[in-house]
């Protein structure tokens, strides 16, 4: 393990450290740092690191988890936006072999980094609440394919991502995740494990790719899912008829594909399984491909 200058384990020790260094937390960057060493270890353990891994960490902050990962894998690329933490990370990690820092907004920087360097085998991070869902959604829709992703996010978002049909949280985001990932809540983290203490409870999600729907167009499937849940009170018939796909490919084509896949047009979106949507998309793939060319 790489030597680390400071292992904070309580809100008080983190606050004192920040003050001594002239660093401060910025609300706009969703900075709620994990102060529980036990939770940090649990997250790193979930990664099941191997020497060949190329790891991405999103929002390392002071690098408390970065230093646990360095040395256990081939290299780690971290994405950080805060200037103060960037200087701290540079000071303590830049001389370590295998460490790479991408400065700035991860929402803008991850795709160029993905194509410029070898794609990561693992992605993890205690994500800022304000961009967690959109960042994960972007990774999925762009077809990023690490062997695992582990994120700390708001519990409510984690529940949406891992929800099953027929449950309150099941929606377009659950489907978009389930087309290519098995998502499981690996732990719940109380607000008191962070500093500053957030207003919400968090969860660790573990995402492992599956290939049950290989050949499925991510763009088509996610548009279908969003159309289906555009208005939760509407029937499948009404949701799909007024959706983006119906406007582009024709209402009848969408409704026929749904029926052929076994989707009842009188059902609500929350009763429709991911398997059914994947099947319906299978009937629409050629039409969709020729429509977007
Ligand atoms: C919830 S804190 C996690 C800090 C640390 N990893 C931990 O677990 O204690 C989120 C981190 O993401 C960084 N961050 C916020 N928005 C970002 C963005 N758009 N791009 C890159 N980093 C960002 C913050 O500066 C902060 O370091």
Instruction: Please identify, by name, the CATH architecture of the largest domain.
Output: 3-Layer(aba) Sandwich
CATH superfamily of the largest domain: Vaccinia Virus protein VP39
SS summary, helix count:
13
**Percent of residues in helical segments?**
40-55%
What composes the largest sheet?
Answer: 7 strands, mixed
- Give me the strand/helix succession: HEHEHEHEHEHEHHEEEHHHHH
Average pLDDT level: 94
Strand order of the largest sheet: 4-3-2-5-6-9-7
Instruction: Assess the beta-strand content as a share of residues.
Output: 15-25%
What is the rounded Rg? 21 Å
The computed structural class is alpha/beta
Shape: elongated
Q: Count every beta strand, where a strand is a DSSP E run of 2 or more residues.
A: 9
CATH first level of the largest domain: which class?
A: Alpha Beta
GO cellular component, one term: cytosol
InterPro entries: KsgA/Erm (IPR001737), rRNA_Ade_diMease-like_C (IPR023165), rRNA_Ade_Mease_Trfase_CS (IPR020596), rRNA_Ade_methylase_Trfase_N (IPR020598), rRNA_adenine_dimethylase (IPR011530), SAM-dependent_MTases_sf (IPR029063)
Family: Belongs to the class I-like SAM-binding methyltransferase superfamily. rRNA adenine N(6)-methyltransferase family. RsmA subfamily.
Protein name: Ribosomal RNA small subunit methyltransferase A
